[in-house]
């Protein structure tokens, strides 16, 4: 492929038109009508999340009939979350479009090529600059028209590039669906295995109903100032869902369950294999009287209930006394506890492997966009054989 590349603006190759809010006194509704309404909250890069689609009341439809988006258009969000870009599926052709998004229509190049270009680093960097200006930044229609686009003069090359990127997106979507399915399987296994409704082969011993406080001891973490932290590689576990930093000295070694103690994520349950510094969290350590992973998965099964046990106002807290009374079903045999844990860990390992593949696929796609949408790498013509 050796054709020239052109530099044009969005306004040169498409018309840019705004969306429209509903007339005063009307509101979108869950009850379906012939008039779906696409909001920014329904948008994801590349397409639409359809699970929350709402509809225009039939009495209001005529007033906004000129603000519809077609399957051959591209949306771009211009208020709230800026710069979401994608297309709608064919069965939503003609849906009404929110006033917080614009549509590119009558597009004079390959539609998907333009969509991917609007998602690429040069355009998104321009949009990022707008996000930092003002409390409620707005992406103006004129600004969208002025975005510069580099595109091959040959439509066939545009299509070829878009096709390669669609294939990469297809792999990413397939992995995301598979991960979601595996998570659903894990949740089902937890509900069956951690309650004794389903027993693993070879086990028939008694189960008992206990409270968490009957089985484990929960220990509070220790304060750690920035000056004390040092520059080591030991993760500091505080109130969030991810480590708050690193230090050079642990206060927990071995395998440890952590429960975030304060903040919006108070009650978040995690488990760590190696040394950690437990700060704004509570911990449960390994014991010869129970299988730690069984306790971890039992807590995961009750994660929503732990969140609901938060106390405090603006700064929620979870203390040991909040979780000790929680009921747990468990086999008296530690061997059966361990066998159940192994089944669930195997599923976790599968999910982790898929997540690594997904991360790799996303990185490859990003690299493809940087190479293919700049012309640094050209796709060769298919040779008829």
Structural class: alpha+beta
C-alpha Rg, in Å?
Answer: 27 Å
The CATH class assignment of the largest domain is Alpha Beta
* Mean pLDDT over the residues: 93
Find the CATH superfamily of the largest domain: DNA methylase specificity domains
Count the domains: 3
> Which sequence of strands runs across the widest sheet?
2-11-8-9
Relative helix content: 25-40%
How does the major sheet shape up? 4 strands, antiparallel
- Return the CATH topology of the largest domain: Adenine-n6-DNA-methyltransferase TaqI, Chain A, domain 2
Quaternary structure annotation? single chain
| Weakly predicted, low-confidence segments | none
Helical segment count: 12
Overall 3D form: elongated
Distance between the termini: 18 Å
Indicate the proportion of strand residues.
Answer: 15-25%
Q: What would you say the CATH architecture of the largest domain is?
A: Alpha-Beta Complex
E-strand count = 21
Organism: Bifidobacterium crudilactis
Keywords: Coiled coil, DNA-binding, Restriction system
Coiled coil: 161-192, 344-371
Domain Type I restriction modification DNA specificity: 4-182, 207-357
SSE diagram, text form:
Elements (H helix, E strand, L loop, with lengths): L4 E5 H4 L1 E4 L17 E3 L4 E2 L2 E2 L5 E2 L2 H4 L6 E2 L4 E4 L7 E2 L8 E3 L3 E5 L5 H9 L1 H11 L9 H6 L1 E5 L2 H39 L13 E5 H4 L3 E2 L5 H4 L4 E4 L7 E3 L8 E5 L8 E4 L4 E2 L2 E5 L6 H10 L1 H6 L11 H4 L3 E5 L2 H39 L13
Parallel strand pairs: 3-10, 15-19
Antiparallel strand pairs: 1-12, 2-11, 3-6, 4-5, 7-10, 8-9, 8-11, 13-21, 14-20, 15-16, 17-18, 17-20
Helix pairs in contact: 6-12
Pfam family, one: Methylase_S
GO molecular function: DNA binding
Keywords: Coiled coil, DNA-binding, Restriction system
């Amino acid at each position: 492929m050796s054709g020239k590349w052109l530099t044009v603006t969005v306004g040169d190759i498409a018309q840019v038109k705004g969306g429209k809010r509903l007339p005063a006194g009307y509101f979108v509704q869950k009850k379906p009508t012939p008039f779906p309404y696409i909001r920014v909250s329904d948008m994801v890069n590349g397409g639409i999340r359809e699970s929350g689609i709402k509809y225009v009341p039939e009495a209001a439809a005529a007033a906004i009939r000129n603000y519809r988006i077609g399957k051959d258009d591209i949306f771009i969000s211009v208020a709230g979350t800026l710069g979401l870009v994608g297309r709608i599926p064919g069965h939503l052709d003609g849906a009404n479009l929110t006033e917080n998004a614009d549509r590119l229509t009558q597009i004079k190049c390959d539609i998907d090529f333009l969509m991917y270009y609007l998602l690429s680093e040069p355009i998104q960097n321009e949009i990022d600059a707008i996000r930092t200006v003002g409390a409620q930044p707005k992406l103006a229609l004129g600004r969208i028209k002025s975005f510069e686009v580099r595109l091959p003069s040959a439509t066939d090359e545009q299509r070829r590039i878009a096709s390669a990127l669609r294939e990469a997106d297809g792999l990413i979507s397939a992995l995301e669906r598979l991960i979601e399915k595996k998570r659903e399987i894990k949740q089902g296994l937890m509900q069956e295995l951690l309650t004794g409704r389903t027993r693993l082969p070879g086990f028939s011993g008694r189960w008992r109903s206990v409270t968490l406080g009957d089985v484990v001891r929960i220990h509070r973490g220790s304060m750690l100032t920035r000056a004390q932290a040092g520059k080591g590689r030991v993760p500091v576990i505080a109130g969030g869902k991810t480590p708050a930093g690193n230090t050079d000295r642990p206060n927990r070694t071995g395998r440890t369950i952590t429960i975030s103690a304060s903040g919006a994520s108070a009650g978040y349950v995690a488990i760590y294999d190696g040394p950690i510094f437990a700060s704004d969290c509570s911990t449960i350590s390994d014991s010869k009287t129970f299988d730690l992973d069984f306790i971890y998965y039992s807590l995961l099964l009750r994660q929503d209930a732990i969140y609901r046990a938060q106390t405090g106002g603006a700064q929620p807290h979870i203390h040991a006394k909040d979780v000790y009374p929680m009921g747990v079903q468990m086999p008296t045999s530690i061997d059966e506890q361990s066998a159940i844990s192994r089944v669930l860990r195997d599923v976790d390992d599968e999910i982790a492997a898929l997540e690594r593949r997904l991360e790799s696929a996303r990185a490859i796609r990003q690299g493809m966009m940087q190479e293919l949408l700049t012309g640094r790498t050209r796709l060769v013509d298919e040779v008829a054989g």
